[in-house]
Amino acid sequence: xxxxxxxxxxxxxxxxxxxxxxxxxxxxxxxxxxxxxxxxxxxxxxxxxxxxxxxxxxxxxxxxxxxxxxxxxx
Length: 74
Hints:
Order of helices and strands: EEHEEE
Number of helices: 1
Strand content: 35-45%
Number of strands: 5
Oligomer: single chain
């Protein structure tokens, strides 16, 4: 379909480092790519847990996912 673009996501990250939700903050211009980014990040990304006073805590982060056909596998 030759779609490409960059999606900016706001992530909710659990105290265990799992992404529990991702919402589109800046669309790639393609609903299909935006949804693929959300699904992939929630299903596959893990973070080192944030800590407060030595205790793991939930946090938020921003992430960008870039879909670039020039670097796609052929």
